[in-house]
Structure prediction request, 79 residues.
Amino acid sequence: MKKNRYLLCLLLCGFLLYYGAPRLSIHADGAEGIFSLAWLAFALMVIAGNLTGLLYSPKRQGQKPQLDRRVKKKSRSFH
Prediction:
């Protein structure tokens, strides 16, 4: 379930970058340039975090491990 969320966040971030990156002016002076660089830096952090979560999440165990069933040996008693 978490993998679906990570994938959705990656797709949304990709869409926002596709839509917003051409409108950002990195070479502008003042607040506009700082905002553009900060926006791109945060977008890259979101991508890195979601990729890390997607790639390094522990794998689910669909089945429970079977118990080690030992064969009980009959003990021989000599009376």
